[in-house]
Amino acid sequence: MLDPNAIHQRILGALPGSEVEVRDTTGTGDHFEARVVSPSFAGKSMVEQHQMVYAPLQDWLKTGELHALALKTYSPEQWKKLGSR
Amino acid sequence: MTPELKARFDNDIRNHKVVLFMKGNALFPQCGFSARALQILQQHGEVHTVDVLADPEVRQGIKEYSNWPTIPQVFINGKFVGGSDILMELEERGELADLIAGKTPV
């Protein structure tokens, strides 16, 4: 069972300066959703952005400890434009 | 993945603007995520579909080709765009039309 905070810390460690929000969607500690706004995402496609978030979580994803992570990723510029949707 | 299979993917993706690797075909999608991806893409024009259920080699090979673990998979203008979540998000953000038109880099 994972803690949203542990996921938060790993994402932040891999993408310093990001704004990260992680939520446990089912309360079972294996399905999460995350929103990441990171300057490192500028000029990257959405797939590349998602892969940058998955990278530090790879071992949890492989073992199935982290079963699902619904991702929303934005560069600060995209977030400014779309964040209030 | 064999070189023949890689060449086949390269060709599919080069010869069609929008390619969807899906479970089932355009007439009979066999999975809700594939059906949804198809529906979104069809609103923007023609979609070339490849049924991964017809060939286990294709089903496994495409995952290696794009380094992405799930199906459906979408390729636009020669580049891998993502799976159904990313596609839905791009549509919601209003970015998909521009991507297909080649106005924004994939």
Automatic annotation (TrEMBL), chain A:
A Pfam match: BolA
PANTHER family attached to this UniProt entry: BOLA TRANSCRIPTION REGULATOR, BOLA-LIKE PROTEIN 1
Taxonomic source organism: Archangium minus
Protein name as catalogued: BolA/IbaG family iron-sulfur metabolism protein
Family: Belongs to the BolA/IbaG family.
Gene3D superfamilies associated with the record: BolA-like
